[in-house]
Amino acid sequence: MWSGQPHPDEGHPPPLEAAPVSWKSVGPCKSRRESPGDLVERCAGEDTQGEEGPAAAQLAVSRLRSSSMEIREKGSEFLKEELHKAQKELKLKDEECERLSKVREQLEQELEELTASLFEEAHKMVREANMKQAASEKQLKEAWGKIDMLQAEVTALKTLVITSTPASPNRELHPQLLSPTKAGPRKGHLRHKSTSSALCPVVCPAAGHILTPDKEGKEVDTALFAEFQAWRESPTLDKSSPFLERVYREDVGPCLDFTMQELSALVRTAVEDNTLTIEPVASQTPPTVKVATVEYGSTNTCALSGLARACRHRIRLGDSESHYYISPSSRARITAVCNFFTYIRYIQQGLVRQDAEPMFWEIMRLRKEMSLAKLGFFPQEA
Coil, helix or strand for 51? Predict the structure, then answer.
């Protein structure tokens, strides 16, 4: 008997049997978007509803929630740690900024102090340079004056010490040693008829011949010569030595004792210090040095004697720019004292190489000049 179903032995597969399938509605999944967690929870719940039931779905949801909370807590802790680390770094940066700010302020202060110090040092250097320049100009002016004085002193030294000594006097420099026909009258001096040997000229008209130095009637004062020898062993300009004390008392003091006592004391101090300058009235100040000078007196009044005299010279004391006009007589007295001090300075410096007696007589001659100048005798060319 034939049936509608094929036989298995005939090589055909067995017929499929209908299996029960449970269909689910997917309409809500396609109609709206859901979050992954809700979708997982819902899908998991749907998957487990058919198998385990409501208890399994609740357990899965609780697990998902606990894992989500755990993830949130870990994320929160990580963020807190990062925030704390960022705050620490920010604090360190603030401290570094504050430190750098203090360093900048310190550097700015040091820079200001250095700038002020440099400006102060520059001003100080400028002041010192100006002072040195002024001192140099002053020294240059003094050097020119000293050069002139030294040249005059060298000339006087050659004249007084080398070419004219008591042992071998230079007759051309001493006209009184020449014969009456060659000498002629000395200008500016008056001949006195006195028989005193102190004031009598060397040329004696009555005898008609020249008196040699040995026949002048000179005699060495033993006490004065002993004082001179004691001074010559250790020459000094100290007035406490007996020799100079006598010369000061007998010659220097009276020779520089003028009517104007205050100016006389200043002149005496300048002569002792070798700081007195005598210059002609017609001399001009060098053009390179502009000095505002102060003139005392006039060319018709002597500042030392106060007498009305024709003053062709003026004196300057030390570094002062003040000038004082002096008469020929006052100039002769000052010059005689300056010549004496010049000679004893040469002796002190070892420039005079003579025996004691020629040096003694040269000093006596200078003392004689001071005595004559004190009495009013002076050459007319002065």
Answer: coil
Mean of the pLDDT values across residues 239-268? 92
How far apart CA 93 and CA 95 sit, in angstroms, is: 5
Say which DSSP state 298 is in: B
| Short-list 60, 15, 27, CA closest to 42 | 60
Give the phi and the psi of residue 281 in degrees, each rounded to 5: -65, -30
| Cβ atoms of 261 and 381 closer than 8 Å | no
pLDDT of residue 192: 34
pTM of the model: 0.45
Q: Which residue has the tokens 């005798």?
A: 377
- As a whole number of angstroms, the distance between CA 196 and CA 359 comes to 25
- What pLDDT does 195 receive? 30
User: Count of CB atoms within 10 A of residue 349's CB?
Assistant: 9
Domain ranges for the chain, please list them. Answer: 60-165, 222-282+295-375
Nearest to 217 by CA among 207, 231, 227, 228: 207
**Closest by Cα among 356, 310, 354 to 330:** 310
The number of beta carbons lying within 10 Å of the beta carbon of residue 44 is 16
**Tens of pLDDT, residues 328-354:** 999 999 999 999 999 999 998 888 888
CA atoms within 13 A on the CB side of 106: 6
What are the contacts of 125-131 at 24+ separation with CB within 8 A?
none
Mean pLDDT of 67-78: 87
Q: In the chain, how many H helices and how many E strands?
A: 10, 6
| Torsional sign, CA 152, 155, 161, 167 | negative
pLDDT digits over 83-107, tens only? 999 999 999 999 999 999 999 999 9
Asked if 370 contacts 337 with a C-beta cutoff of 8 angstroms, the reply is yes
Going by C-alpha positions, the residue among 315, 313, 344, 332 that lies closest to residue 371 is 332
According to DSSP, the residues that pair with 325 across neighbouring strands are 314
The burial class, CB within 10 Å (0-12 / 13-18 / 19+), for 240 is exposed
Identify any residues that bridge with 203 across adjacent strands, giving them in sequence order.
210
